[in-house]
Amino acid sequence: MDQMIWLWQLYAVFLYERICGVKAVITGDVVYDDECELIIMNHRTRFDWLFVFSYQIRCGSLRHFKISLKEILKNVPGPGWAMQCAGYLFLHRNWEHDKSTISKCFMYFKKLNYKPQILLFPEGTDLTPRTKAKSDKFAQDNGVEPYKYVLHPRTRGFKYFVEQMRDVNLFDSIIDVTVGYPVNIPQNESDILKGDFPKEVHFYIKRHKALDIPLSEENVDIWCQKVWKEKEERLKKFYQDKKFDVKDNKIQLKDESEIQSLFKFANIFWSIFQISTFILLIYAPIIRWFALLSISIFVFISKFGGIQVLLDCELENAKHYM
User: Fold this and answer.
1) Do 80 and 302 contact (CB within 8 A), yes or no?
2) What does the entry list under GO cellular component (predicted)?
3) How far is CA 291 from CA 87, 294, 295, in A?
4) What contacts 144, CB < 8 A, 6 or more positions away?
5) Phi and psi of 154, rounded to 5°?
6) Residues 6+ positions from 147 with CB-CB distance below 8 Å
7) CA-based Rg of the chain, rounded to a whole angstrom?
8) pTM attached to this predicted model
9) Which pLDDT tens digit goes with each residue over 189-245?
10) Can you name the residues that pair with 28 across neighbouring β-strands?
11) What would the pLDDT profile of 133-146 be if each residue is shown by its tens digit?
């Protein structure tokens, strides 16, 4: 499943970079594609998770890339089912339920000796007038500075991610990604459907080694708040200059010719796959029945908790035999 998701992500990047003309500009620290990482990023639009593929393919491991998402998205026909199979983390905004989900996912990764690189949006939602008003009210109620370019982070989930990654020894670094859109910011799905893609997406990367992250929950909270304050200042300058400061740029990008070759491969693979599937659905009754059965199974499974339920059963069996 990782291979199929990887190929789909490659195809998505190919479509919006080569067909829609989106350019990714990446600056900052050196990162490593073989580490267990918690990637934290400001949430400027609903499509940050999509455009970050451009960073991940050039600096991290796209095969091991996972995303923490709102639970409702797992029920989206097709993409939601694929993300369930890929091991994405779906959160309910119910703390007791989400604690269990996060713990079980990391136990599962540990059981597989898997090195995930997980994207988490500590702000919890994208920046809009409505969410900014809520963030400003939070700032006023707590006597802290209101932000213009980011929302105040919700640190409880972030702290628990750090704690669980430490507990299962799957924690090498935190990658702090600041994303900015110098021209044309597509806020929601309607913008994308109208072809309103950004001309450029800029990523500024700061790598923090796991050993440099505080141990106590209180200090992790303070650390996250400090990172977000720095992010606010960085974005303030970015939207003045339309670029991030690159005087200390150390980033090492993968060979672009290899990436372009991967784009070609993904394009050929999915073109053949889609055409073949279309022909088989028309002329092969067994394929139509298989497609109907698969859809029915995913609808049923999603109604009762999704692929996560199967993961829970596997972990319970593993405990039983330990």
Assistant:
1) yes
2) endoplasmic reticulum
3) 22, 5, 6
4) 138, 152
5) -95, 105
6) 135, 139, 228, 232
7) 20
8) 0.91
9) 888 888 889 999 999 999 999 999 999 999 999 999 999 999 999 999 999 999 998
10) 205
11) 999 999 999 889 99
